[in-house]
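agent> fetching stored inputs for the magnesium ion docking request
agent> found them:
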Amino acid sequence: MERTLVLIKPDGVRRALVGEVIARIESKGYSIAGVRMLNADRSLLERHYAEHQGKPFYEPLLEFMSSGPIVAIIAEGNRVIEGFRSLAGATDPTLAAPGTIRGDLARDQGTKVVQNIVHGSDSVESATREIAIFFPEGM
Ligand code: DAT
Ligand code: MG
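agent> prediction call returned; pasting tokens
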């Protein structure tokens, strides 16, 4: 069964949207195979966001992602990787379609990094790598 890593970012936790995000995943028909709340430290975030190193928003992204607790979730189901990306909507919350998590629940706050409530893995390889980072003991 396919798995993806979902993160509810600090903006989502601060705004009490943990239940809302999990409800959307479950309502779509995916199952929750693991959940963990944590304060991500810099070395963990450097591993998770390695592909973005050197980009202008990289430092603000790491700072934002360590600004408060996050919730890491393993969601499971056929085609859940693309399915969750579809539920999440476009990266830019101003452009994300209404009906999506980002389209309904986030907007541009004028910050250096886009704050868009959730992360979702973008491929099987990313999902495997990211799940191992956030659930090192397995799930
Ligand atoms: P996604 O989270 O949709 O997979 P990504 O992997 O390209 O997007 O980028 C990771 C996060 O970095 C994204 O959720 C928000 C932020 N980000 C991406 N592109 C950005 C940009 N051009 N300006 C500001 N923040 C950006
Ligand atoms: Mg990404």
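agent> quick read of the result: Helices lie at 10-14, 18-28, 42-48, 58-65, 80-88, 101-105, 124-134.
agent> awaiting further instructions
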